[in-house]
Write a structure and sequence with these properties.
Number of helices: 2
Distance between the termini: 73 Å
Strand content: 25-35%
Number of strands: 8
Helix content: 10-25%
Largest sheet: 8 strands, antiparallel
Order of helices and strands: HEEEEEHEEE
Strand order of the largest sheet: 5-4-3-2-1-8-7-6
């Protein structure tokens, strides 16, 4: 009898373990782990905000993700730096973005570039194009790989 109770307890524990919450997303990009993805390495130049709007900025907005997960670039007015975390199914998260504070007439458009990066949830690469999607699957904007 005691043996049967132990087996029932083990079976119940295994069943409950199978019903536990899903594991946290498999993010990579902390300082201890090198990130690996087609988005890492090349310079990505801003092409569009949303699906069709081209911005006219003092300098080309762009970013580069390094293998250590750091990101650097420009929002079109100011230099930016931060971190990026990549996960399964093209999940992306820009974190701790900081910029220089140089003034420019197109500061509102530069802010839109930063917001696009900060809101990016997933990405898709098609040839030399990179598209960011928000959590609602809306297209946030696109970049082109620099040659």
């Amino acid at each position: 009898m005691m043996h049967k109770g132990w087996l029932m307890g083990l079976a119940t524990a295994a069943l409950l373990a199978g019903c536990s919450t899903a594991p946290a997303p498999d993010y990579r990009g902390d300082q201890a782990t090198a990130v690996s993805s087609p988005v890492v390495g090349p310079r990505w130049n801003l092409l569009l905000v949303g699906t069709h709007e081209r911005l006219s900025l003092p300098e080309r907005a762009h970013f580069v993700i390094a293998r250590d997960g750091s990101v650097s670039g420009s929002d079109g007015c100011n230099q930016l730096r931060g971190q990026v975390r990549l996960g399964e199914r093209q999940r992306i998260e820009f974190q701790d973005l900081a910029t220089t504070r140089r003034g420019c007439a197109q500061a509102a458009d530069a802010e839109r570039v930063r917001e696009m990066l900060e809101t990016a949830y997933r990405f898709l690469i098609d040839h030399d194009r990179l598209v960011f999607f928000g959590p609602d699957q809306r297209v946030l904007g696109g970049f082109r790989r620099a040659s």
